[in-house]
Design goal:
This protein is of the alpha/beta class. The chain has a seven-stranded mixed sheet, with helices on both faces. The radius of gyration is 29 Å and the shape is globular.
């Protein structure tokens, strides 16, 4: 039996020798390679933290002692060691382990994670909370726990990490931060701080050089050495300012330890014990290899580490990448396979390059997600028109605002869920000043395996309430190209477009982008039923927004089979709403159905209702969208079925609504899978 098979919880590690702990770390690594290589999931960062997770859980007593994993995509070894070893094969799958840390999943997951740079802030709050509640325990009968935050140097580019570091230094909060320095987050890290850490990581002899210099100066002859020795603290501070890699931390009243080999269990345990005994803020700077133990990542340099940040299902077999299927014999009949439609992300990235070529003012801005947002295409084609600010969405928007003030046309490409982190900058610095910033929000709607921290559910609602902003969403990839042109030709203030993750519809892309009139919708089909049938019952208009248009078209096709006259409309804009078109639809139909892949509260359906109500029109409206809850992780198709966001379920709800005979009512949700309030109006 392997050592790993004997580990049912972190307490089992404290009985092992250091040699056994090192062996256990390797077994954890092999378990992750075998499991994630089969099912897919975050990969490289987890291989780099196996020794660290073993060291932490062998020194600390979780969950009394708190171990906080920033982001969480480096926490698979932690999950394996805390009773979830046999469930790792379910990670990121519907009903399985959460893709990141989740306080609902295990008492050892101290904080929910998914967005970066939050662990140090949590740590300061947790430790000060312990000290506050334990202040009255004078007899020491209730000792508080120790707190350790593990943060990657990629997450250290986030401003909230700096805010927490400043607070902890000011308070003297006795926490330990493990700075896991692997030179990467998802893509290579950017910025001066990252370059600083790289210099330190690659030059550990700096410490020895400084020590040698101090000793050598004091040994100089003819009284000179004695004079240097009398200088004491002044000399040491001057030398430290020149040599010390931890000066930045020391100036903020943190103690600095490093650089420690992050794959040496013994060294890690010694450093952690020393840091925890210091009873002050301490940073332990460790050097690890992203993808440790997996040759294509470890030996592939930055390109290999970036490629293997995540592994696709069945991408690894027997510890090595799987090979493509062998080609068929020349005499065998070859099956022609149609290529899938391009991803929305790819279409956006290529369209942005064309816009940069067309207009020298256009630039792209990302917050450490160059490949995820498609800006890697621009980075390669026109690197001088590409900017990456690191994991710092607030700075991305402030930077874009500064560019706009100088007449540049910045396109801030940020996931819908990550843009939330820059809300004050959107409100105060962009919308208030009516600056020409384009927000390109990838991952709008339910994104799948990454779960509730990454679903783009709220952007329609959180942006629609802001003055001076225009909101639009394409129904397909061709419309995305045209909407990007629309946004860049708009000069009256900020404009935002949202689009989903995944493949487009397969529609042909326009050879030449064409701007759309702001605030205009489009009727796609009008009141038709199958040929030879007679329409019966109430007239229904389905008004889709973005990905909701596809669902509206699917629902309409089902309703037409039931001889219901259905009009389908692409609203295209959530702000401003096409008030004239909405009034026309209300006048000509008995029921309006709005369809959006976002929360209903304050969303697109609410915008339609408010627009008509302000005009004195009170139609019956059925709003279809996402429920008032955080949706779990799983494949998008499963999640859409769960929340009722499918053509079939929408058609069923419409059929139930029109069978009501036009009476006024409110539905609070048809069943546990329903998408919230359904019908309002008379």
């Amino acid at each position: 039996m392997s050592l790993l098979e004997k580990i049912d919880g972190p307490e089992d590690l404290r009985e092992l020798s250091e040699q056994e702990l090192a062996q256990l770390a390797q077994e954890v690594r092999e378990h992750i390679i075998d499991t994630v290589g089969e099912i897919g999931g975050h990969f490289g960062a987890n291989l780099g933290t196996c020794e660290l997770a073993v060291a932490l859980h062998s020194v600390l007593e979780s969950p009394r002692d708190k171990i906080l994993w920033d982001v969480g995509h480096q926490a698979y070894p932690h999950k394996v060691l805390t009773g979830r070893r046999d469930q790792l094969s379910t990670i990121r799958q519907y009903g399985g382990l959460a893709p990141f840390c989740s306080i609902a999943e295990s008492p050892h997951d101290i904080m929910g994670a998914g967005h970066a740079s939050t662990s140090i802030g949590y740590a300061v709050g947790i430790k000060e909370g312990m000290r506050h509640l334990d202040a009255g325990e004078a007899d020491g009968s209730k000792p508080d726990g120790k707190v350790v935050a593990v943060i990657g140097d990629g997450a250290m580019t986030g401003g909230v990490a700096f805010e927490a570091i400043g607070q902890a230094g000011g308070l003297g909060t006795p926490i330990v931060v493990v700075l896991n320095d692997n030179g990467m987050s998802i893509a290579p890290n950017v910025g001066a701080l990252s370059r600083y850490f790289n210099r330190v990581r690659l030059n550990p002899k700096l410490w020895h050089a400084r020590s040698d210099l101090e000793g050598g100066l004091t040994r100089l002859p003819i009284g000179i050495g004695a004079a240097f020795e009398r200088l004491g603290p002044h000399l040491k501070e001057s030398i430290k300012a020149f040599w010390a890699p931890g000066l930045w931390w020391e100036e903020l009243d943190w103690a600095y330890m490093g650089v420690i080999d992050g794959h040496d269990v013994r060294a890690l345990r010694e450093a952690l014990r020393e840091a925890l005994s210091a009873q002050r803020p301490v940073v332990v700077h460790i050097a690890t290899v992203k993808g440790k133990g997996f040759a294509p990542a470890e030996d592939g340099g930055l390109e290999g580490m970036e490629k293997w940040h995540a592994a696709k299902p069945k991408s690894i077999s027997n510890g090595m990448p799987t090979k493509p299927a062998a080609a068929k014999d020349a005499g065998a009949r070859t099956k022609i396979v149609q290529p899938p439609p391009p991803q929305f992300t790819q279409v956006f990235g290529e369209a942005l390059v064309r816009e940069c070529e067309r207009d020298e003012r256009v630039v792209g801005v990302t917050a450490a997600m160059n490949s995820g947002t498609g800006l890697s295409i621009l980075q390669k084609a026109m690197p001088d028109r590409y900017f990456d600010v690191g994991i710092a969405e607030q700075q991305a928007i402030l930077f874009a605002a500064g560019l706009a003030l100088e007449g540049v046309k910045p396109v801030a490409a940020i996931y819908s869920t990550f843009l939330q982190r820059a809300y004050d900058q959107i409100v105060h610095d962009v919308c208030l000043q009516r600056l020409n910033v384009v927000f390109a929000m990838d991952r709008a709607g339910l994104v799948g395996d990454d779960g509730p921290t990454h679903h783009g559910a709220f952007d329609i609602a959180y942006l629609r309430c802001l003055p001076n902003i225009v909101l639009m969403a394409p129904r397909d990839e061709a419309m995305l190209v045209n909407m990007l042109r629309t946004a860049l030709e708009y000069d009256e203030g900020p404009i935002a477009l949202r689009y989903p993750r995944g493949e487009g519809t397969g529609i042909e892309l326009p050879s030449q982008a064409k701007a759309i009139a702001i605030g205009t919708g489009e009727i796609l089909s009008e009141g038709d039923v199958p040929s030879g049938s007679a329409a019966t019952g109430p007239r229904v208009a389905l008004i889709g927004y973005g990905s909701g248009v596809v669902k509206a078209l699917e629902a309409a096709e089902r309703l037409r089979q039931q001889e219901v006259a259905v009009t389908v409309v692409d609203a295209r804009f959530a702000k401003p709403i096409d008030a004239g078109l909405m009034a026309q639809l209300a006048a000509e139909h008995d029921l309006l159905v709005t369809v959006e892949e976002g929360v209903l509260a304050g969303g697109f359906g609410s915008a339609v209702w408010e627009t008509l109500n302000d005009a004195g029109v009170t139609p019956r409206i059925l709003r279809v969208g996402l429920p008032d809850e955080y949706v779990t992780h799983g494949k998008p198709a499963l999640l859409h079925e769960q929340v009722g966001f499918t053509g079939e379920r929408i058609a069923e709800r419409i059929a139930a609504a029109i069978s009501d005979g036009g009476r006024k009512r409110t539905i609070r949700g048809s069943d546990s899978r329903g998408a919230g309030p359904a019908i309002i109006g008379a």
